[in-house]
Specification:
By secondary structure, this protein is of the alpha/beta class. It has 3 domains: 224 residues, FAD/NAD(P)-binding domain (3-Layer(bba) Sandwich); 115 residues, FAD/NAD(P)-binding domain; 113 residues, FAD/NAD-linked reductase, C-terminal dimerisation domain (Enolase-like, domain 1). The strands form 5 sheets. It has a 5-stranded mixed barrel with strand order 1-2-3-4-5. β8, α6 and β9 form a beta-alpha-beta unit. α1 runs parallel beside α8. The protein is globular, with a radius of gyration of 24 Å. It starts with a strand and ends in a 7-residue tail after the last helix. It binds flavin-adenine dinucleotide.
Length: 479
């Protein structure tokens, strides 16, 4: 006998579990299916984000930042510690504990909102009268029928052709988050968010980190003044970053008790190079997870990348089937997946859910943090939009000086005629938190002058935001 639901959600990452909860809040009978298992074989909802993405990476970034502070910055504050040691196993155990708290939190939220959770792989069987039949293959097999279906099956790390992830020496994000001891030499292919964050963790703990990037420009998606500052700071910290490389053959070979990875590549000048490392992280992008879904059974349309084709409202080509998050177009970010999940649940309930793609913030949790929303200066130039720019350095911010963290700046870009904020770019302490003010301002279509006229607490890092807004009109007060 099949179990009937108003909505079946496949995938319990941030897109899926949030869609399930919002739909339940709106009065629907909801099932959510997720295949992720923890080491003990139990359910581990939360997807990539909770298990091998946002949450564990931030746990390790925090631990490694504490270590960096203890070894490099405590002395400035008059704190002497003697020799500081890093227990990597303990750090990984703590990270696993943080992940488990989040897995358990989602199971609790499902219970609280009366979402029926099924642990296993979900796939389409067929379209039936008034809905779709979905098979769940887990410890027990179940058949569910959903009047509506949301696919939120996420994405997986893309491997380089010819070299698979063994998660011991050649690592995806999964293996990168559970390296058992600090590698002496770490290679990272790809200088995107994941490569930079993972490279930072292991660099702070003492690894010699080399990042190889195929693009000729560092962080091409970021505002180039931020990217230049970031490259300068990361290089000073000891990250070796090579741009414009072409990766050749990658080989693993035993050397004594260890295994080494050698990466042949040509550098930007076309010279042949060989990098030998103990561990290699490959972070060259992610592929949508549609393999296990059996999309052909119902005629669900995929594009050439294997992503589910959706319109602006996340509707697929099938009536009553929606898709959200990493498995569809758009930025692969947890908060974008969540916003789409909420909007789809509200649309199914007859409401007018919306996602504003122009105000999705981007954050890189390196030190200094990098965050932005809206257009970059290079995009405005390319689009022929006239703009004014204002910038304020953390060096001139009292709170940043007190924190001992004065790297970076806040930069505002505003329309030359209307003064409407078009983009805000931050590199510096707590950029991930500071960017929210800019997101709110842009959602309300504020002008730079609006922010400049708002009272900001003193001393706070947010005063740098106010000052950057003042800088648009060339009237900073503290610089
Ligand atoms: P996912 O989180 O991938 O979840 C999909 C779920 O569906 C998984 O549990 C999967 O097992 C399950 N599934 C797949 N197929 C099936 C099936 N057939 N049946 C049942 N279940 C299935 N984003 C940020 O916004 N901020 C960050 O700081 C950040 N850091 C990151 C760090 C790393 C190292 C990585 C890898 C990613 C990071 N991301 C970050 C990206 C973020 O994790 C993703 O954008 C987000 O998880 C996408 O959510 P989702 O719900 O679409 O998919």
């Amino acid at each position: 006998m099949s179990k009937q639901f108003d909505l079946v959600v496949i995938g319990a990452g941030p897109g899926g579990y949030i869609a399930a909860i919002r739909a339940a809040q709106l009065g629907m009978q909801v099932a959510c299916i997720d295949a992720w298992s923890n080491a003990a074989g139990g359910a581990a909802p939360g997807g990539t984000c909770t298990n091998v993405g946002c949450i564990p990476s931030k746990a390790l970034l925090q631990s490694s930042e504490h270590f960096d502070h203890a070894t490099h910055h405590f002395a400035e504050h008059g704190i002497s510690t003697g020799s500081v040691k890093m227990d990597v196993a303990k750090m990984i155990e703590r990270k696993d504990g943080v992940v488990k708290q989040n897995n358990d939190g989602i199971l609790y939220l499902f219970k609280k909102n009366k979402v029926s959770f099924f642990h296993g792989k979900g796939s389409f069987v067929k379209a039936v009268e008034g809905g779709y039949e979905i098979k769940v293959e887990g410890k027990a097999e179940e058949t569910l029928v959903g009047k509506q279906v949301v696919v939120a099956t996420g994405s997986s790390a893309r491997a380089l052709p010819g070299i698979e992830f063994d998660e011991v020496n050649v690592l995806s994000n999964d293996g990168a988050l559970r390296i058992g001891a600090v590698p002496k030499r770490l290679g990272v292919i790809g200088s995107g968010v994941i490569g930079l964050e993972m490279g930072s963790v292991w660099r702070r703990l003492g690894a010699e980190v080399t990042i190889l990037e195929g693009m000729p420009t560092f962080m091409p998606a970021a505002d180039q003044s931020v990217a230049k500052e970031a490259q300068k700071v990361f290089t000073k910290q000891g990250l070796k970053i090579e741009l414009g490389v072409k990766i050749g053959e990658i080989k693993t070979a035993k050397k004594g008790r260890n295994t080494e990875v050698s990466i042949a590549y040509s550098n930007a000048k076309g010279e042949e190079q060989l990098l030998t490392v103990d561990k290699l992280i490959v972070s060259i992008g992610r592929v949508p997870n549609t393999n296990g879904l059996n999309p052909d059974a119902v005629g669900l349309q995929l594009d050439e990348r294997g992503a589910i084709v959706v319109d602006a409202d996340c509707k697929t080509n099938l009536p009553g089937v929606w898709a959200v998050g990493d498995v569809v177009r758009g930025p692969m970010l947890a908060h974008k997946a969540e916003e789409e999940g909420v909007a789809v649940a509200e649309r199914i309930a007859g409401q007018h859910g919306h996602v504003n793609f122009n105000t999705i913030p981007w954050v890189i949790y390196t030190s200094p943090e990098i965050a932005w929303v809206g257009k970059t200066e290079q995009q405005l130039k390319a689009d022929g939009i006239e703009y004014k720019a204002g910038q304020f350095p953390f060096l001139a911010n009292g709170r940043a000086r007190a924190l001992g963290d004065t790297t970076g700046f806040v930069k505002f870009l505003a329309d030359a005629k209307t003064d409407e904020i078009l983009g805000v770019h931050i590199i510096g302490p707590m950029a991930s938190e500071l960017i929210s003010e800019a997101v709110v301002a842009m959602e309300f279509r504020a002008s730079a002058e609006d922010i400049a006229r708002i009272c900001h607490a003193h001393p706070s890092l947010s005063e740098a935001t106010k000052e950057a807004a003042l800088a648009v009109d060339k009237r900073t007060l503290n610089f």
